[in-house]
Every structure is written in structure tokens, then in C-alpha cells.
Amino acid sequence: MTDRILAAFVPLVDCAVLVAAREQGFAAAEGFDLELVKEPSWASLRDHLCLGHVDCAHALAPLPVALSLGVGYLQVDCAAPFVLSRGGNAITVAARLFDAMQAFAGELTFAKGPAAAGRALAAVARRRPAPLTFGMVFPFSNHNFDLRYWLASAGLHPDRDVRLVAIPPPLMVETLRAGLVDGFCVGEPWNSLAVTQGLGCIVATQSQLFPRAVEKVLVVRTAFASAPERMAKLLRALSAAAAWADNPRNHSRLAECLARPEYLGAPAEPIEALLRGRLQLGGGREAHDPDLIFFHRYAANLPDAADAQWAYAQMVRWGQVAASTEGQARAAHTFRSDLYERSLPAPPSVPLRPPAFDRIEFGAGDLRAYLDQFDVQTPFQDTVAT
Amino acid sequence: MIQRPLRILIIDENAVRAAILEEGLRVANVDEGAVQVHHIRDMVNLLPRIVALDPDVILIDLENPSRDTLEQMFHVSRSARRPIAMFVDKSDSATVQAAIDAGVSAYVVDGLRKERVRSILDVTISRFHAFDRLQSELREAKSALEDRKIIDQAKGILMKQRGCSEDDAYVLLRRTAMNQNRKIAELARSLVAAAALLSLGGEQ
User: Fold this and answer.
1) What gap in Å lies between CA B151 and CA B147, rounded to an integer?
2) What is the pLDDT of residues A81-127, one digit of tens each?
3) From CA B71, how far away is CA B73, in angstroms rounded?
4) Which of A240-244, B82-86, B190-194 comes out lowest in average pLDDT?
5) A26 with A240: CB under 8 angstroms?
6) How far off is chain B from A386, nearest CA to CA, in Å?
7) Candidates 3.40.50.10350, 3.90.1200.10, 3.40.190.10, 3.40.600.10; correct CATH number of A3-86+213-267+294-303+317-353?
8) So what's the ipTM on this one?
9) Is there a contact between A47 and B62 if contact means CB atoms under 8 Å apart?
10) I need a surface site. Which of A220, A315, A380, B9 has the fewest CB within 10 A?
11) Is residue B118 part of a domain?
12) Model's pTM, two decimal places?
């Protein structure tokens, strides 16, 4: 009987590698059936992974870090042996809020960058009687961390000056339409859909904030990682699928496939545009950046412990965990280049990443020194105040 | 110390399932002490409503997309009684498995007796299963009705075309179905479809 591997996913463009592995026959070529299970929320995906209902999952990069540390949930030993995508998120604000920002700052072109947009937002926010509300997808997500980072760099405290709420990606556009949020940080195609419906304008992309950042990883429980043959064929199929997904010749087919109701159930057009490095920002503006989202080039699939430590640093910065050397080491150990290299050839070289939008470099060596550069932080509270 | 009743909050968009669960929890927890069961059906303004109800246990459909919102609210909530996902307690993984299989997740405030939580969960699991059974019985009843309708139509066509009695038409249908190793309803469906193509039309 053919081996069957179950993978949970949330409908987003960055589940492309899993979809391609199944639909383009890369899993079949390795001799297994890849079955994809669509999840309504990150909480549901996490539960199914942790209880062994699926073998692996398409996960927010900080999720395995939080699980390994047992933050906000049961402690689960898990590993990320493969990076599924880099980039692909964006920050969108309501169309009317964007108008107010431009009234203050003049035209906010893509080239002006996230810092200018942040300053404009802060200026508008300070004149408002009530705090702005922003949506993000999960407490342990780049969406939460990127949004917080960006707000803080503009002088807005994400826990005091604004309200943050978690909303599953497919519901994001509706909450903007209903006026429940003033903006959000989410993965594609949900920003584009808000833009094409005239509801919102994109003010920053993940590729601008943190170029080539790890966005989604493949997560397995440690039990799965200890079956090297299954792991090897899974990673080989994913690597081939990732190379296929990165090739511009395949972008039309990939977009059509992702658009189908069993995957995203969204129009193919903005998905294909994004894959080709184009993004409608709203207000007649367009972004051109070949690295908006990608799946394979620049040694994209190789996990790096430093990226897990970046997520850990953000968790410390926002009071989700208390800083400790033991915690940091445990976090680092979730991104497993050793498991990758056991199944796939090591990339010949890993190119240096461009700097973050604020030019602050992340150094995993001295977390305290890194965090000391930021004025805006939220201390960890062990005992809950009443 | 005055024992206040245990407060259980059901968050479910499906009113029928919530009612079945609510009734089950009321009955089952009588021995263990008083319970108050509340039901929130729509997800608007969830947190203030939860805070106002101050529940000890929250039961929510596993597939409910509001779970991420709920968990983050609990996570940042600075209130004293912060409900946590039931799965945080590793000691009872069989119950957790059964709950997930049944399609329910639970959030429980700290300090509640484990046996009490388990008895609530057991009721919830069995009520969720009961609801599923009800659903599938309803589906079966519906399809039985549809089958009968289509078989009647097919009989009508045969009676008209062959000038035979209703009983003979049924025997013919059954024999043909047996010979072809198909279900009567299935055969009837193809016959009706073919008749429609050829515009023969039976009695409607």
C-alpha cells in the first residue's frame, strides 16, 4: 500500500509548496500520497498536529518555537526541518485611514517605505480620541511581531496606543468591511482582496520590513522526525515542488491551482500577480519587487536557528516569555538544518540577506544587547494582575 | 464559603447542537452540584460578553474560526481568571483525543477539579456524537424519501411504455437491478434520466 502523509494547511498563497507537491506529482514521484487538510484556524491546525491527527503542518514560523517552549499551550516537542516560504505578508489600513495618513504626509509611494508610512500613521493615531484596532492572525506569528515592530518604530506602543486582535486570514477582509478593524497584517491574497474591493490600502510589505524573512515552515512532531525515510521522501518532494513553484513558467498554473475552492477559494489573478512580484497597493499605486514572496531561491528552504531566535527575541520583547538562556537554546533547536541536510544536499552557499527597514541588525549572540536597542517593550508578567 | 454554581458557556453558531448540549449538561451535573449554562450564538463583541458571564468552562466547536480570536484574547487578558486550552493539561490525553474526535474544544479556568472537568467533557462528547447521529439519520431519511420518489417515477414510465401494472413495473425494475448488480434507486435514476432525454416522461 502507498504510504500516506497528512499535512494540515491554512488557506494562504504561502501553502503553495504543499499544494504543488501534491498537484504536480512531486509526492507521487517519491512514492507517497500527500493528503492536505484545510484548517479553519491556527488553533485548530495546532490541535490536529499536536494530537497526531496529521503528520505535519504548514505553520507560522514562530509557532514551533512557542510549542517547544510551552507558551500559551501545552509543551510539545516539534521541529521545523524545512522552510516553505519567505515573505508574502503585508500591512493594510482602511481606505479612509490611508487618506488621512496621506493628508498628513503627502503621497505614500511604495518607494518611501514602511518608516514613512509608520510616521504618518502615528501622526493620525495621536489625533484620534480612541485607539486604532489592528487585526493580526495569531499571538505567535510574524504578523503579530512585524505589526508590533513597525508600530513601535513609529512610536506607537502596540499594547497601549492601539488594540490588537487575532482574526483568521479568511475572515480578515470581512472585519475590515464591517469596520471592526482599522487595518491588519495578513498573508496574501487577503491584502490584495481588500485593495481590489476598495476597502483598504497596503502601507508596507513584509519584503520591505524584513527582506527574505522566513514566513511559513513545515512543522513535524519529534516522533515523525525520528522516521528518517519518511522525512527524507517528504523533504525531497517539497524541495522539488518549491523549485517548481519559484519558476515563472509555472506561475499561471500554480495560481490557478491555489485559487481552487479546496485550497484558497479566491480569484487567481492577484495570486499570479503576487507570484510574479507585483502587488496592487490601492490608490493607483503598485509594488514591483521580485522577492515579495518566494519559495526556493537564495537557499530559501534551509532552516536557520537564528531565525527561530529572532522569533524568540520578539516573544521576549512583547512579554510573551521571560528571557532565559535555556529558553533561547530550546527555541534555536526547533529550526533544524541538521534534519534538512540529512535528507537534502546542503546549498552551496547561503547569500546574505538585505538589512531590515530600520537597519537594526539581529544578533542572536547577545539577545539582551539586541533588545536594549528598543525603547518600546512590554515586560513579562509572571503573575497575572487583577 | 458559599458555593456558587459552576458556569458553563457554550459558544456555538448551531442553535440545535447547543440546545442538545445544554440540556445534557443540566441533567448530568445535578449530582455534582448546581450548574449554570449559557449560550452565545454570534461572535460579535465576544470578549466583554465572556467577561460579563465569567464562565468556569467554555465549550466551543473545534471548527469555529473564532478560536484564534478567543485564544489571543485570553492570552493578553489581564483579568484574574484566564481560561486556558484544556489540552494544556497532559494528564488526561484520552479525554482530549475523544473531544477533538467529537469536534469540540474546551477552555477551562485554573483550579477546577479535574474530575468535574472530565464529567462535563464526557457529557459534551456524547452530546456532540448524538447530534452527529441525528444529522446522519436526517440525511438518511431524506435520501430514502428521494429514492422512493424516483422509483415511483420510473415505475410510471414503465407502466406507460409497456402497459403493465405497477407491481409488474416494480418486479421488472428489481430484477434488472439485481442482474446488473445495482441499487433499484440507482437504476430508477438512470431510467428517469434516459426517459427525459427521449422525452417519454412518466407521471410526475
Assistant:
1) 6
2) 999 999 999 999 999 999 999 999 999 999 999 999 999 999 999 99
3) 5
4) B82-86
5) yes
6) 5
7) 3.40.190.10
8) 0.79
9) yes
10) A380
11) yes
12) 0.84
